[in-house]
Specification:
Layout (H helix, E strand, L loop, with lengths): L8 E7 L6 H14 L3 E6 L14 H11 L5 E4 L1 H5 L4 H11 L4 E7 H4 L8 H5 L4 E4 L7 H4 L1 H5 L21 E4 L8 H7 L7
Parallel strand pairs: 1-2, 1-4, 2-3, 4-5, 5-6
EC number: 2.7.7.18
Keywords: ATP-binding, NAD, Nucleotide-binding, Nucleotidyltransferase, Pyridine nucleotide biosynthesis, Transferase
GO molecular function, one term: nicotinate-nucleotide adenylyltransferase activity
Length: 199
């Protein structure tokens, strides 16, 4: 895990980054700016239990690509989940909390993931481990109103104007952050890269 100091506000942005693209960089930029973070960890996962592994690029390759794209020095690219043999986000967050007492973490996800968040293993436990910042993505702006997570934790939502305080609030707390959106997606880029497709 990247080095942190007590009192820091640290964002956690996990995913397969398969491949990484400017949309990831935009989410990172928005999170750093709106949440007042000391660091943002890009946690490159060995694989997503909800997705097929058939098109998954090697972890080392994805980490190297992320480091190339992540230009802000506050972004720390890491693949510690694989080293620790962790599979589910709930276990990853529990491990982070145990190993980093006194650090204020906030889980960051794109709004496109909010729609299916209730399918994640122990999703309510995730919401109760760290506050969550949901960053707007094209076609997903209204997901914070219709998703099961948003309905279940409606009482815990704070106004996005209060986003700079989010990391230091006790979970469950979450907010939806509007901002510039990139239409790029890893799925679309993989499809475009298939033989016979125009990039």
């Amino acid at each position: 895990m990247p080095h942190v100091e007590k009192g820091m506000a640290v964002g956690l942005f996990g995913g397969s980054f398969n491949p990484v693209h400017e949309g990831h960089a935009l989410v990172g930029e928005i999170a750093l700016m709106r949440l007042g973070l000391s660091q943002l960890w890009w946690m490159v996962t060995p694989g997503n239990p909800l997705k097929s592994r058939t098109e998954l690029r090697p972890l080392a390759e994805r980490i190297a690509q992320c480091r190339h794209v992540a230009s802000d020095r506050r972004i720390k690219v890491t693949g510690f989940e694989a080293a620790l043999g962790l599979r589910y986000t709930a276990d990853v967050l529990k491990t982070i909390r145990t190993r980093n007492p006194g650090v204020h973490f906030v889980w960051i996800m794109g709004a496109d993931n909010l729609k299916s968040f209730h399918r994640w293993e122990r999703w309510q436990e995730i919401a109760r481990t760290f506050p969550i910042a949901v960053v707007d993505r094209p076609g997903s702006t209204l997901s914070y109103l219709s998703s099961q997570m948003a309905k279940t934790f409606d009482y815990a939502r704070i106004d996005e104007d209060d986003a700079p305080r989010l990391a230091r609030l006790s979970p469950p707390r979450w907010t939806f952050i509007h901002g510039p959106r990139s239409s790029l997606s890893s799925t679309a880029l993989r499809e475009a890269a298939k033989p016979g497709r125009d990039l």
